């Protein structure tokens, strides 16, 4: 139950204190639902030797950390739509960022919508659904706080005037040529920024303070609450206060030691890092040199540490309010991110580095604390899990499987496989939509031609432009030992694969060698398992 409490808070940074009055009791626990965009498991609690993430590490040390959690598609909108509806991309029909969930599935039940129906107040701050899929009218029962006294709301990603100007100049030039299409990734400012400003000067810091204010408002109500807090970083652009950059010595930041594509891998399996290359100051072709690579990883790490600090502030307020002992806390990332791994910068692949995500959960009554589970779990499992943990019915449409039993027995036998998919990364934009004319006409044209030629050389007479640009899907299955990637025509699940990849994680955890041709019998066994689907993996 929410306890009666009266407390005053003095928050870190530049946030004004607020006091909390009497809160009515409720029978079910609250849920604090924390999403972090583009966060790979580059955290101290996941064994990173460089990442400074004390608040997430502390949460993991008192909760349950999932070492092998996977998204259903390594791009924002499809991944979040899958998680928030408890269904897989094949059900939502959502495979890229430029179509809305309600456009394709007007009647599908979302997680917060279900919680509302079961007596919860729901609200969110920041990015929970993807932009354009906020579902304000159906999924959220009340609006969050939207302003802070004496603190200016951030406008845009940059604080340094020169970066604000550069971004606008780049957009103006692209708008003049392509009109509204320029908004789809044809122009941007710098990839990173380090400004000596307070945390709330950037949007994630400001939004954290809005979430704290919203939590106060929810706590004053009679119902249990479901509060979503969605962090934009470490999504590009990596703009974080200077003090978080100063946590790191650039000379000590390690770079990926696997910068080549998998030997014998699919030519369509990797992209040309379009999402990064559109930023000012990033080479439009060729490799990213080691000096710039180190700066970019520094920017990513600083952004991660900044978000970690904001999560710490949010959790501190939950603790001081007296709400924590009746609140379930879950932290998840929507997909991974290549930081030069396999020579790629960005998400949007079917490999381990893009599909594996950070996931941790804390509940007031969990029996085992500070454990790490190796169980295979998926983001689509969160909907049924939270239903079970708070004691509400699970809707019949769910395609995930509750991992609540792992909270009491983290090492028990579990799923046999996790499933993800991604349409041809090489010939798709970074939002996973088919290549636009603007992409072909800008500096990306030569890159696209190079990638296309590699595919033609590998595929030979299997090459078909319409198939490879519009309909080729990579379906991937991660078992305890293997990752299978099957490339085939999305329109026909019975179609013969045009290419297969197989990686042995016992001997090759970085997925450097495709062994499919050497293991034909194993491939056939795993193909049958893939065809059996997610339900057969339970």
Automatic annotation (TrEMBL):
Cofactor(s) needed by this chain: Ca(2+)
CDD domains: iduronate-2-sulfatase (cd16030)
Alphabetic keyword roster: Calcium, Hydrolase, Metal-binding, Signal
Record PROSITE patterns: SULFATASE_2
Keyword Signal: yes
Entry-linked InterPro entries: Alkaline_phosphatase_core_sf, IDS, Sulfatase_CS, Sulfatase_N
The keyword Hydrolase is assigned to this record: yes
Transmembrane stretches, start-end: none
Stated name of the protein: Sulfatase
